[in-house]
Sequence to fold (638 residues):
Amino acid sequence: MIVVMKPSATEAQIDAVVARLADRHLETRVLRGAERPVIAVIGKVSLDPREFETLPGVAECTRISRPYKLASREWKAEPTVVNVGGYAIGGPQLVVMAGPCSVESREQLLEAAAACHAAGAHILRGGAFKPRTSPYAFQGKGEEGLQLLAEARALHGMPIVTEVVTAEHVPLVAKYSDIVQIGARNMQNFELLKAVSEIDRPVLLKRGISATIEELLMAAEYILSGGNPHVMLCERGIRTYETATRNTLDLSAVPVLRALTHLPVIVDPSHGTGHRPYVAPMAMAAVAAGADGIMIEVHPNPEVALSDGPQSLYPHMLERLLRDVEVVAPVVGRHLPRPTRPTRRAHAEASATHSTQTDAPAAAPETLTAPTNTVAYQGQAGAFSEKAARQFFGPDASLLPNPSFRSVFEAVARGEAAYAVLPIENSLTGSIHENYDLLLEHDLHIVGELKLRIVHTLIGQPGANLDDVDTVYAHPQAAGQCEAFLRKRGWRVVNVYDTAGSVAHVKALGDARAAGIAGPHVAALYRMETLAESIEDNPSNFTRFMVLARDPAPRADANKSTLVFRAENRPGGLLAVLDAIAKAGLNMVRLESRPIHGTPWQYMFYVDLEGIVDDAAVDALRLTAPFVRVLGAYHSAV
Ligand code: PEP
Ligand code: MN
Fold:
């Protein structure tokens, strides 16, 4: 049963309900959600909900129809986000766990870790205690393997995930690892589940080879009810009659789990397929299905691996896969963050003897949000820019809404915000010219970019119908992207300069004839009604956002540069600059011109280039262009 309290319920009222349930020898968990507190009554309950509905502060009491309670969405509607070493698993950012099946030797593990880190993996995997089908197979290196994992963590700032196979080893494995894995063979080892329920470490719970989704969730319930809320589920294939693959990777489990539980879902296509060539396609499919992360086995030398060589990727295959994932992620509203760079401390630890610090779990590595994590964006809660900022910077960033693009630039220039996230180009409607002009006016640097898929929804009053609508309040960009939909209906379109703001405006009007256009998540945010879904004319609708800061980005990660120049006003003036760019070996991927304010019919040219523009290239450009400024060298997904 769950007791849903009123948003206005006081702590005393919550305590009174908990005390009354305790009198009946019932255990409770209180969840202070974003909207209202909820009390879960765990275990078998044979109470009349009406008895509690009359208590002060109580909104309603309902029975949870499922055998699992704390794992259910009914108990906790918002997704659970598990924080591991600076990565938020279950939020808008995808997480990649990669590494060898087993820790075999120091050389093998350190080589694998370096390769996985370089390829873009966030978390290092590797088994030190191996549950093997055959008693004659390699059983793992035990504590020595854990020490090697800790050494690799210190070197690369990568948190580690490793399996525990017996309850007695739980404290030892927890001491060394950032995530404790329960393997498929132990999913229903209830004593082991109880043991990990008592530790202060996230748990990755793999689905048993013949377990139903309900059994997986019941196993998670053991860990949650024992007091450990940091549980992630892992689909790794189940046993079916099919023999072409080692297991049958049940990707339908991803949306099913998403509907039934708030816990993050990771997919392991390595054990799921058992064959190297099938791993990358299924990893991509897992991301498309909505997984929060993937777990991939990678070995520097799979032919000589002591376990699971045939399903282990070569490091270059992981790199290729993650490049593809980076591009696919925005289609399903996700972002693949760059792995955080190892901290200075991690370098220091690595070069010191590894006896003192290496068995401590990874400290949160330095992230792009350090030292301050404030990010300015234009619009208000629910704006696409807010979504982009959240995807790029993760859940811990503090986001500052701003009324205009100009005020976003100023917030960073003044130091009120460390970063800005601003739209620069839409794949259908083209450049956001104002931001090009503002780039020139301010002395900020482009330090990153991301692409967000834009899906538009028509949103109106609760209870309103599409037929009631005669006026649409919309951002001109949004209206432009839904032009065919709007034209067909002949509605009056009124400009508002914020997508989420258009919905707030419509709400304030309280008129069923008015509707706004915003992202699908905005209706619930403002408690309004979705009148029509996916109304953009073309589903291939992406907006590219740039991330700005006062200081340039670290060069190590950069693969793209943007610069702005003015050409000489003579025949071939522009050609001379473009020729200098070509001679510098830089591939120009975009050219945009903007009028120079106050000098009619003269233009500034903005170019995006693949690669990093070094000082020599800038000097060469200056020989032909009277004005050149590098706006940034940064990492781009494509
Ligand atoms: C593993 O991840 O190394 C492993 C043994 O996986 P599973 O428990 O899914 O077989
Ligand atoms: Mn394995």
About this structure: The chain has four domains: 2-62, 82-338, 457-535, 554-638. The pocket of phosphoenolpyruvate (ligand 1) is lined by residues 101, 127, 163, 183-185, 206, 236, 268, 271 (CB under 6 Å).
